[in-house]
Amino acid sequence: EADIYQTPRYLVIGTGKKITLECSQTMGHDKMYWYQQDPGMELHLIHYSYGVNSTEKGDLSSESTVSRIRTEHFPLTLESARPSHTSQYLCASSGQGAGYGYTFGSGTRLTVV
Amino acid sequence: QKEVEQDPGPLGVPEGAIVSLNCTYSNSAFQYFMWYRQYSRKGPELLMYTYSSGNKEDGRFTAQVDKSSKYISLFIRDSQPSDSATYLCAMSQGSNYQLIWGAGTKLIIKP
Questions:
Q1: Which residues in chain A are closer than 8 Å to B87, comparing Cβ atoms?
Q2: B69-110 pLDDT, tens per residue?
Q3: Which of residues 42-81 of A touch B (CB under 8 A)?
């Protein structure tokens, strides 16, 4: 079944640690996105990619980095986690861009202590 | 001022009632309008998609777009407890533009 997968679902980690949030999709979509979502707030775009070896920063300033070496894989890395990084991180993909809607993963709930 | 405004709620309605959810926006260039439903601890899922103005119906759900008023609505008929979720509106100028999101309205259907 075509889908988009995020791991881990929940992560509690200490300040200063390096973490990678995984995102994989089986739909062959070219476009992939990372969003940050806090309770009661709109989704904020932090990174996006329109294809292999193409990555861009979104509207929300972020200390994270992403890579897109394979079409199906779009991991997000925090080199040094801080309590301000505590949030829900959502990965999404789209076959034809914003006009046709996104498919989202279930998200990673990150807590930095 | 945000480009897309959405009342965060919560909105509580009795089971079986008609629900009306709304978003207003400021950018007249938006052409694609969507509604997503998000259950707790899950990612958003696309519920309704509309291009330009008009109505679109899918089962118990109807999406309306009024571009002259910069106002979009989602109606849910015969609401069920399983409809309890956060509903997010999103819109875009076109397929090569990013989606702009509302903050979401939390809907609670009371049995």
A1: none
A2: 999 999 999 999 999 999 999 999 987 788 899 999 999 999
A3: 42-43, 45, 48, 58-59
3-class DSSP assignment, residue A83: helix
Encode burial over B62-81: b for 16+ CB neighbours within 10 A, e otherwise: bbbbeeeebebbbbbeebee
Average confidence (pLDDT) over A11-25? 97
The per-residue pLDDT for B96 is: 75
Q: Give the CATH fold of the A4-95 domain.
A: Immunoglobulin-like (2.60.40)
More confident residue, B41 or A96: B41
**And the tokens for A110?**
């990150």
What is the domain count for chain B? Answer: 1
| Chain A residues within an 8 Å CB radius of B46 | 101-103
Least CB–CB distance from A90: residue in B43, B94, B98: B43
Determine the structural domain holding residue B15 and report its residue range. Answer: 4-110
pLDDT at A103 over 60: yes
